[in-house]
């Protein structure tokens, strides 16, 4: 029963993140990637911290966890965003999407090295889903011209490794803290790190003149991609483990293609349909014998998505 809930929650995150490829693009017509994300996390962090205060009480995290919290924010919110934007700018969309979609493999390897068990069906599903992702992305046709394909491909590989490491690095935080609390603080740290690199004129003067599509893009990124998406994703990492959660990353390019077709920006192809079928089959197979949880979260004392509190909130 719990696993069914986890499957639906993680599938919904994949759908939201898939839609964000198109919706975020609307905002990037007016803002550069760093500035867009600085605004996004600066807006999301206070909302998340207020939500922690309302649901759990004081949003305290013991000092002993702050180094890992800072590492998590630095890897998943700052470094990944910069590597991703470099990849998209320097290489083709096709190559960057395929290379970044390798992140679940990095997660499986790093999870094993960190001592987290990874079930065989998850590894098999990752291989099948990767084949489906390649078909979905190649089915979109040729990408844009690449000013520096080799450097862009390297940036995409770095982004893939960073996103793959993100849940493994964050997982220990979730043993003692709720996903909501962890998301709130990593967003706050990410905002603090991104703001100095953001375009000051855009932050100081352009906020009142944003177009409706840019405003919609920012609102979707704050509420859907960050507040809901990251909290639910962390919850999935704690509930079923890093590796099994990351398999759902393979569904993101499929969701992106579906949303692009629905919004009228692209047309579906036979390769995309075949690829989507492979991904869905892989996700179904990854749930095989899933009552054996990857991360042992049946014993972590948390039973609900909105669990009120954290074990060591008052420790120093």
Structure commentary:
The protein is mainly α and 316 residues long. It has 13 helices and no strands. α6 packs parallel to α12. The chain is globular, with a radius of gyration of 19 Å.
Which structural category do the helix and sheet elements fall into? mainly alpha
Write down the Rg: 19 Å
Note the overall shape.
globular
**Global mean pLDDT:** 76
Major sheet characteristics: none
Give the number of helices: 13
Low-confidence stretches: 291-310, 312-316
CA(first)-CA(last) distance? 36 Å
The residue fraction in helices comes out at 55-70%
Q: Report strand %.
A: under 5%
Instruction: Please tally the β strands and state the result.
Output: 0
The arrangement of helices and strands along the chain is HHHHHHHHHHHHH
Keywords: Membrane, Transmembrane, Transmembrane helix
Transmembrane segments: 34-57, 69-90, 96-115, 122-142, 182-204, 216-236, 243-262
Pfam family, one: EamA
Main location: membrane
């Amino acid at each position: 029963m719990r696993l069914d809930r986890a499957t639906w929650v993680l599938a919904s995150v994949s759908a939201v993140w898939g839609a964000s490829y198109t919706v975020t693009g609307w905002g990037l017509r007016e803002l550069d990637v760093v500035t867009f994300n600085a605004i996004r996390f600066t807006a999301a962090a206070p909302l998340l911290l207020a939500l922690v205060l309302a649901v759990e009480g004081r949003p305290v995290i013991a000092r002993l966890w702050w180094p890992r919290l800072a590492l998590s924010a630095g890897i998943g919110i700052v470094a990944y965003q910069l590597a991703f934007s470099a990849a998209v700018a320097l290489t083709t969309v096709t190559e960057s999407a395929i290379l970044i979609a390798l992140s679940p493999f990095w997660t499986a390897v790093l999870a094993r090295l960190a001592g987290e068990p990874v079930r065989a069906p998850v590894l098999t599903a990752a291989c099948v889903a990767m084949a489906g992702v390649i078909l979905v992305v190649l089915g979109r046709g040729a990408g844009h011209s690449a000013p520096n394909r080799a450097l862009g491909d390297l940036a995409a590989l770095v982004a893939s490794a960073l996103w793959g490491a993100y849940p493994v690095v964050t997982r220990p935080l979730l043993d003692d803290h709720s996903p909501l609390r962890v998301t709130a603080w990593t967003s706050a740290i990410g905002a603090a790190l991104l703001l100095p690199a953001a375009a000051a004129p855009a932050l100081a003067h352009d906020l009142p003149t944003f177009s409706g599509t840019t405003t919609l893009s920012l609102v979707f990124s704050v509420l859907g991609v960050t507040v809901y998406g990251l909290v639910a994703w962390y919850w999935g990492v704690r509930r079923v483990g890093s590796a099994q959660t990351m398999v759902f990353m393979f569904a993101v390019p499929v969701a992106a293609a579906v949303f692009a077709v629905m919004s009228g920006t692209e047309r579906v192809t036979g390769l995309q349909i075949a690829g989507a079928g492979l991904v869905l089959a892989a996700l179904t197979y990854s749930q095989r014998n899933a009552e054996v949880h990857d991360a042992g979260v049946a014993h972590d004392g948390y039973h609900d998505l909105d669990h009120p509190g954290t074990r060591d909130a008052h420790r120093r």
